[in-house]
Amino acid sequence: MVSAFEQGVAAARIRNIPVAEACFRRALAENPADALARAWLGQAQCAKGEVRDGAGNLLTAGRAMIAAPPQPRTAAALQQIIGQLQQWGALAEAVALLDALVARNPNDAGARSARATTYAMLNQPAEALADARHARSLIQPTAASEVFLASLEADAGLSAEAEARLRAVLAADPAPRETYRALKELARLLDRRGAAAEAFDCLEQAARIWPEVPEYAALDRVLLPRRIAENQAQFTPELISRWAGHDFGDRAAPTFVFGFFRSGTTLTQEVLASHKSLFVSDEVGLISAMGANLARMAPGHPTAATRLASLGGDGLAALRESYWRMAQGRHGEAALAGRFVDKFTMNVIDAGLIATVFPDARFVFMVRDPRDVCLSAFQQLMVPTAATAHLLDWESTARFYAQVTEWWRHLRPMLRLPVIELRYEDAVADFTGTYTRLLDFIGVGWDDAVSRFHERAAGKFISTPSRGQVARPLYSSSVGRWRRHPAPFARIAAYLAPSISAYGYPG
C-alpha cells in the first residue's frame, strides 16, 4: 500500500501542490515526528505562497534532523531545506540551521559556504567573508568559490586581493559560467578604481560568453517585448477606467513602486520600509501570480487586456481578493497592518493590468538618467529571468530600456489614478525634500526613521543587486558615470534619445 508520504512526493513532483500538501498533512497526523514529511509540507506551503508557515515547518524539520544522529539521507535533506529557505528569503531561519550545523562541526565546509552565501544575502559582508575564507581553508577551492570569495573581498574594500583572485581565475580558463561571472566582477572592480575602458572591455567580453552559459542561453528573449507590444496595442482608456470609482468594499489599494532596473526602486523601497506606517513587499511576484489567476479565470482569452475585458465586477473583486490573500500568505498578518507598498521593479510592464484591477492605487515611477540606468544594468550580475535576459549585452540593454519606457509614456496619459515620477538625482541632491514629497503623495507624514534607512538595510535580505548600496548613506558618485564611456554610448544613442528628451536630461 502506498503511504501518504509517498503519495505526497508523487503529487509534488507533478506540481499538484494542493494534493501534495494534503498528503503530507496526513503523513504528519500519522507520525508527528516525521521530519522529512514536515520538510516536504513546508516546501509545498512555500510553493503555494504561504512562505511564513512553510518556512516555519522547514525550520522545525531541519532542527529535528540536526538533533538526530547524522545520516546521509538527512544530510541531503538538510541541504535542500537550507536551499529552500534561501530561495524564499527566509534567511534568519537558514542562518539558524547553519549555526547549528557549524556548532556541531566547526569544520563543516559545506555549512560554512552556505552560511557565507546567506550572510551575503543578508548584507553582512564581514561575516560572509569570514565563513568563505574558513571554507576555503578546508577544501580545494573551485573557480566558482574563488569568484564568490573575490566578490566578498570587493564588498569588504579589499580590492587588490579581489582583483588578483579574479585574474587568477580567468588565467586558468574556467568554464563559461565562471568566466562570465569573473569578468563581471572584475569589471566592477576596474570601474571602481577608474579604469573605465578596461572595465567596459570586460563587460563586452562577458557579453560574448553568455550564450554558452546554460541558464542564460535558455531564457526567452521574445516573451516580454511581445507582451509590451500587446499591452500597448490593447490597453485603452476605456478598459483602464472601466472600474474607476467603484467601491469594492475591500482594503485600500497598494502603492506600486516600479521603473526600470537600477533606476532607484530599491533605494525608495528601503526608505519607505523604514516608515512606521508602511509595509513594503520587496520583489515578490504578487502581480505575476495575480496575472496567472486571471488567466485561469478567463480561459480562451490570450492576453491580459482581453481577459480583463471579459470579467465582470464580481470577477475583478475576486482577483483583488486573490492578491491580498497571496500578500498575507507571503508576508503574514503584518502585511495588512499598515499601508501596503508593492515594489517590484518590472511591474511597469504590467502597469495596465494593475491600473485596471486597482483603479484606486497609487503609482510611483522611478526616473534616472537613461544612460546611467543602462550602464548600471549592464554591469550587474543578475538572476536569470525573462527580464534580465535583455541585459546580457549592450545593445539589447538599451533596446529593452527603450521598449519599457516607451510603453510607460504611452500608458501614463490614460491613467486616472494618482501618479508621481520620482527622480533618483533629486533624491541624491535633496533627500528630505524628495521623500517628504513622496510620503505626502502616499498619504503618510514624515518619519525621522526614513533618514536612517541605510541602518535598517544593513543585515536585512534585499533581493536586488543594490543591497550593498542601500546599506550605506546616500552618495552622489553614481550620478553621471556614463560620461566615462563616450564611445559605447554613441552606439546606443538612438535608443535612449527619446527618454533623455522626455525626462529633460542634458545631452
Structure write-up:
This protein is mostly helical. The protein has 3 domains: 127 residues, Tetratricopeptide repeat domain (Serine Threonine Protein Phosphatase 5, Tetratricopeptide repeat); 78 residues, Alpha Horseshoe (Serine Threonine Protein Phosphatase 5, Tetratricopeptide repeat), CATH 1.25.40; 205 residues, 3-Layer(aba) Sandwich (Rossmann fold), CATH 3.40.50. Helix content is 61%, strand content 5%. The protein has 26 helices and 5 strands. A 5-stranded parallel β-sheet has the order 2-3-1-4-5. α7 runs antiparallel to α8. The chain is globular.
Query: Could you name the CATH topology of the largest domain?
Result: Rossmann fold
Number of helices: 26
Low-confidence region ranges: none
How many domains? The number is: 3
Read across the widest sheet, the strand sequence of neighbours is 2-3-1-4-5
Number of strands: 5
Kindly estimate the percentage of residues that lie in beta strands according to DSSP: under 5%
Helix content: 55-70%
Report Rg: 24 Å
Summarize the main sheet: 5 strands, parallel
User: Architecture of the largest domain, CATH level 2?
Assistant: 3-Layer(aba) Sandwich
Shape: globular
Reading off the top of the CATH hierarchy, the class of the largest domain is best stated as: Alpha Beta
